[in-house]
Specification:
heterodimer; A: 113 residues; mainly beta; four-stranded antiparallel sheet; B: 114 residues; six-stranded mixed sheet; five-stranded mixed sheet; 11 strands; 0% helix; globular
Chain lengths: 113, 114
Amino acid sequence: DTAVSQTPKYLVTQMGNDKSIKCEQNLGHDTMYWYKQDSKKFLKIMFSYNNKELIINETVPNRFSPKSPDKAHLNLHINSLELGDSAVYFCASSRVTRGEKLFFGSGTQLSVL
Amino acid sequence: GESVGLHLPTLSVQEGDNSIINCAYSNSASDYFIWYKQESGKGPQFIIDIRSNMDKRQGQRVTVLLNKTVKHLSLQIAATQPGDSAVYFCAENNQKDSWGKLQFGAGTQVVVTP
């Protein structure tokens, strides 16, 4: 069983569209995250949820809206996609909120044309 | 072989040799450090972590060294294998002040040659 799974793995879309990425973890963790990895492989945290509550919201355009229906799921919705949104988005989870030993999904490669 | 991280340099290592990947961290208040390995097309995978009350920690074929005086972290891989080819990231966190803000360095590409 995959511990942290996210779908889709690839997402190709036109500028201006709205898209969602889904994430689920079966590790029983309370904290989930979204990270963005740019073309230079730099990983930057976007959001963190603890037991469905938003605890980290970095400087991210409000076109990005995370939603956590329960502590095992954290989805990312992106409105009005722009070229600069092209990146790999990783979902992760951890047992504690202190940001240690994150378990990452396999990533969603988003290409905005 | 030896390399400094943060700008995705490439470290070329011969199979069987030891690798040393270096990382200079930025926040003197950081008290938790972690190394991840990312293979092509996959998510980062945990390798080893260390807290600031330690200066060395060993795992299976890996050793992490922490020098708080110069804010330097290194990952040593013994007897490097082809499966070790990947991008390696160090990350830091100040667990007293942050809620899960694990800050990643830019990564080092390790290429294992036969």
